[in-house]
Amino acid sequence: MPIGQLIRDLRTLKHWTQAQLAEELAIYAGDPTGAPGRDAVKRWETGKVIPGKHWIGHLSRVLGVPAAQLAAEATLDRVNRRAFLGLSTLAVTHGALASEMAASIASRDPAPLARVQTTHGADIVTASLTDKASAASLRRWMLDGDMSILRVNAAGILAKLPGQGQADQVARVLAHDEEVRHLYLTAVTSRVCAVDWTTAGRIASRPASYYHRADFLATRFAKEALNPRDSGARWCSSVMLQELSPMIGRSPA
């Protein structure tokens, strides 16, 4: 998600105007000039300007979101300004790992996928390198893998295959495999809602406990529910929206 959207969503969650956010930032920054000012906040939220390191630190404290997440979103926006974030750009970051995973899948070796849950970007690149035979291996591991990490990683790659041809099978696994569902939901929640893994797991397990952030969470999941690259993320986002729906509009002022 662009950093401007994240700033706007978090500001809206607090029921602040752009001017009020600017005032809070000025107080935290101890700036007698009143910087950054409403116009700067507006430029951040519309994507015309990306906040620098100085303001990211203050935004983190004022909005209650990890500075690392804001910095990551800002970096992604800068990449997008230089070039559309397509497969070639993702490959710069994830290419080596994705190539190793694709090779192991092609050789029918599930070990690398059973070590740690892979990232969204790595899955996209790996999916682009996956042929029909490899997809068949991934389906077997997704259905019958003896470790939940292996099953969720296989599902994550299949969910991102070009053409989305495995979407129905991934959805069935997410609906019936509780361990895979929790891991996938946690990963999507962490990435989409800009929270750490532990918090994401709690939200995925007990969304009702976060009723006070229901509007913000629903806004983020609603956008991800349209993700054209990841059928698993669409499914998870739809589930979270269903869970959050009774609480939407009831967040405390």
Would you mind describing this structure in some detail?
This protein is mainly alpha-helical and 253 residues long. It has 3 domains: 3-82, 434 Repressor (Amino-terminal Domain), CATH 1.10.260; 87-177, no CATH class; 183-247, no CATH class. 68% of the residues lie in helices and 0% in strands. It contains 14 helices and no strands. Helix 7 packs across helix 9, helix 8 runs antiparallel to helix 9 and helix 13 runs antiparallel to helix 14 (231-244).
What is the overall silhouette? elongated
**C-alpha-based Rg, rounded:** 20 Å
Count of domain modules: 3
**SSE string, helix = H, strand = E?**
HHHHHHHHHHHHHH
Share of residues in strands: under 5%
Q: What is the end-to-end distance?
A: 25 Å
Supply the number of helical segments.
Answer: 14
Could you tell me the mean pLDDT? 87
**Uncertain residue ranges:** none
What is the helix content? 55-70%
Coarse structural class: mainly alpha
Q: Main sheet? A: none
Number of strands: 0
Question: What's the arrangement of secondary structure elements?
Answer:
Elements: H1 3-13, H2 18-29, H3 38-45, H4 53-63, H5 67-82, H6 87-106, H7 120-128, H8 132-144, H9 148-158, H10 167-176, H11 178-193, H12 197-205, H13 214-224, H14 231-244
Helix pairs in contact: 1-13, 2-3, 2-4, 6-7, 7-9, 8-9, 9-11, 10-11, 10-14, 11-12, 11-14, 13-14
